[in-house]
Amino acid sequence: xxxxxxxxxxxxxxxxxxxxxxxxxxxxxxxxxxxxxxxxxxxxxxxxxxxxxxxxxxxxxxxxxxxxxxxxxxxxxxxxxxxxxxxxxxxxxxxxxxxxxxxxxxxxxxxxxxxxxxxxxxxxxxxxxxxxxxxxxxxxxxxxxxxxxxxxxxxxxxxxxxxxxxxxxxxxxxxxxxxxxxxxxxxxxxxxxxxxxxxxxxxxxxxxxxxxxxxxxxxxxxxxxxxxxxxxxxxxxxxxxxxxxxxxxxxxxxxxxxxxxxxxxx
Length: 266
Ligand SMILES: C[S@@+](CC[C@H](N)C(=O)[O-])C[C@H]1O[C@@H](n2cnc3c(N)ncnc32)[C@H](O)[C@@H]1O
Fold this sequence. Notes:
Elements: H1 9-25, H2 41-44, H3 58-62, E1 81-85, H4 91-99, E2 105-110, H5 113-126, E3 131-135, E4 148-154, H6 163-173, E5 174-187, H7 193-196, H8 199-203, H9 212-222, E6 225-231, H10 244-250, E7 254-262
Parallel strand pairs: 1-2, 1-4, 2-3, 4-5
Antiparallel strand pairs: 5-7, 6-7
The chain binds S-adenosylmethionine.
S-adenosylmethionine binds near residues 112, 159 and 160.
């Protein structure tokens, strides 16, 4: 935990847990997509095409902490099996579950029990039977190897200190030829010292973010091919603990991206 304001991984996880607990209770007032306006958080930050969200509960949108739409170019097909790493309250899980019908199945994994309870509540509201929510860590997913067609994740991998371990786990879980489609934050350049020492900067998807070049290198080192990236045009407001001065330093350096990659076919 050198260079981090945490004593241990446990300490880091409980900080992240508290942060998103607040997001769930206070309708996305702490998230990447924060704008504090009921029912508009997800569409406001351009994460999703508005028509995709029409039939979803407003509360699900405000409790979502997205930074992009990982399903946008994921070429999801009926019958496929999908896993969402760090699924939060389940927006992408439920969107994917509708698209893989008939015959497909979606797993949503998160370490936060309260988030999973919310996701389960929305799953029932939408009457989707092809969803299974799993409590666990994305570093160690309780699913068999080569069982998944598409792994998605939205604004969550940056929160894990050992990103290589998460990407190795994703590689293990994918079938040969399986796809990875991530939305995540990247950080180009150094973080001001005050923010490096501020635990909320990690929880807010800032201090744990790596550069795009490092992300690509990690994916390639784990074995992924066909790595494609694309910027997300987003319109979110900034976490309140970041000062005006810090914001100017970070603008254009702290960015949301979509990353797609493929496990080679056997
Ligand atoms: C920024 S939120 C994004 C939630 C969701 N993907 C969305 O778009 O609304 C990050 C989520 O990742 C989860 N998370 C962070 N670290 C995790 C880990 N090591 N294993 C599993 N989940 C984790 C948090 O509990 C939180 O729900």
